[in-house]
Specification:
There is one protein chain. This protein is an alpha/beta fold. 48% of the residues lie in helices and 6% in strands.
Length: 452
């Protein structure tokens, strides 16, 4: 099983993990509410990746020919016919519109011939089931995708058979995606984006990619410009199922030259591979059922490896972020040092504006707790539009709630009420039911020293 960890911030968002045997790939809806209406996002306009085509080719190979566990995939597999997608089960109300927008993006940005259908012989079946049903099959998964099945019961029966083993797959004809129908609307959408991308294309995740959902830090919640570029290359006519790693590598320069001509003139950035020991240390440091001493030791080890590798990128930043999370309850000032260090490394790494927005929730929250409203406003302000443009409602709501508390500290009560009201619609999409939204409101309000 290939489990993914989530980047735990002020808010906790569940992770997804694609499914196979022996590796499994994985990553709600409120009822009648007394709160303001739920807000939702419209069409997204992601930035195209600013990369050398040589780097894109390396990324493509590493994403497409290896599972996260380290096991290699012998051949490229994809759908060789137009792709149809259907939804079954008790689908949450927002799934239809989110799926429609995603299919539209896949058609226009990745140039994949994909359509929605109600036919029972769809290539990809999205089954909406409860989180409990998913975890009875895969305890650590929030959602997952599996080959050659259409239902969760079918997967349970076939999970240890060759037909559900990604490493034995020769081409893709039938896939199933299992999403939670009792999670927040954002979590359902996040799972939809990641699992549909993996049903269509790469199965691996790489920590070194700052601007992709194919990254276990789970910062990006919708497919990015980089992701669409990779999927477009995946379905280029020059490739086909059954091609070896060497055959695909030989075809990629011409493919990327055609679909990303400006990448021909950019210098390559050489990124070292991520040692398994670092990945394991990060998982322990951010673990939920691990002792403090184990988490602290793991975070120290992640920082040690990052320093020894000479990293100055998002991985070095993430190691310090993990240490900040470990120290937050026992040594708040020490945690702030590591959050500030993480922000410094993110700031010098292209493509990490969204990462910095996450860190700003920690820095801004601490400033509010210390009664420094003006400082909190300065820390939060640059990141609100980043969260909005990245379609991350949970992050956006958190930033707005922090801004509201900071405004109260500055005796700007009317502005604070207006911002808080704006935040609730986004919180309903990001966190789900009323009780979860109200809990988030109380959590952020409790930071304000004026409220005891």
């Amino acid at each position: 099983m290939r489990a993914r960890i989530v980047l735990p911030l002020v808010m906790l968002l569940n992770a997804c993990v694609p499914a196979s045997q022996p590796e499994v790939a994985t990553r709600a809806i409120s009822s009648t509410s007394t709160l303001p209406p739920m807000k939702s996002f419209g069409a997204t306009q992601p930035s195209a990746p600013v990369r050398s085509n040589k780097d894109l080719a390396v990324d493509f190979i590493e994403l497409s020919f290896q599972m996260e566990s380290g096991r290699t995939l012998p051949v490229l597999t994809r759908f060789e016919t137009p792709v149809t997608v259907r939804v079954t089960g008790a689908a949450p109300a927002t799934l239809g519109s989110d799926l429609s927008r995603l299919i539209s993006r896949l058609r226009s940005e990745a140039k994949i011939n994909i359509t929605y259908t109600t036919s029972s012989n769809a290539n990809i079946t999205i089954q909406a089931v409860s989180r409990a049903d998913i975890r009875r099959v895969l305890p650590q998964a929030a959602c997952f995708v599996a080959p050659n099945v259409s239902t969760l019961s079918e997967y349970r029966s076939a999970r240890r058979q060759p037909r559900t083993n990604w490493t034995l797959l020769q081409k893709r004809e039938r896939m199933a995606i299992f999403l939670p129908n009792d999670a927040s609307p954002q979590e359902v959408r996040d799972c939809l984006h990641e699992e549909l991308a993996q049903a269509l294309g790469p199965l691996n995740d790489l920590y070194r990619l700052p601007d992709s959902v194919f990254n276990d830090d789970n910062v990006h919640t919708v497919l990015t410009g980089f992701d669409m570029m990779i999927l477009r290359a995946y379905y280029d006519p020059a490739l086909r199922s059954g091609m070896s790693r060497d055959q695909v590598a030989a075809a990629l320069p011409a493919i990327f030259s055609r679909i990303n001509p400006r990448g021909n003139y950019r210098p390559a950035r050489v990124s070292t591979r991520t040692p398994l020991a670092w990945s394991r240390a990060i998982q322990v440091a951010l673990g939920r059922s691990v002792s403090f001493s184990s988490r602290h030791a793991a975070a120290r080890e992640a920082i040690r490896i990052s320093t020894a590798m000479g990293w100055q990128d998002n991985r070095r930043a993430f190691a310090h972020y993990a240490m900040g999370r470990v120290l937050q309850n026992t040594d708040p000032e020490g945690a702030q040092f590591h959050y500030a260090t993480a922000d410094r490394f993110y700031a010098q790494t292209p493509g990490t504006a969204l990462h910095r927005a996450y860190v700003a929730t920690q820095l801004g929250g601490y400033a509010v707790s210390q009664g420094h409203g003006d400082a909190a406003l300065r820390l939060i302000a640059p990141h609100i539009d980043i969260a909005r443009n990245s379609q991350n409602a949970a992050l956006l709501a958190t930033l707005l709630l922090l801004r509201s508390e900071a405004l109260e500290l500055e005796n700007r009560a009317a502005e604070a009420r207006s911002v808080r009201l704006d935040s609730i619609g986004w919180a309903r999409y990001g966190f789900g039911p009323d009780w979860a939204v109200r809990a988030k409101l109380r959590e952020i309000a409790s930071l304000n020293p004026l409220k005891g």
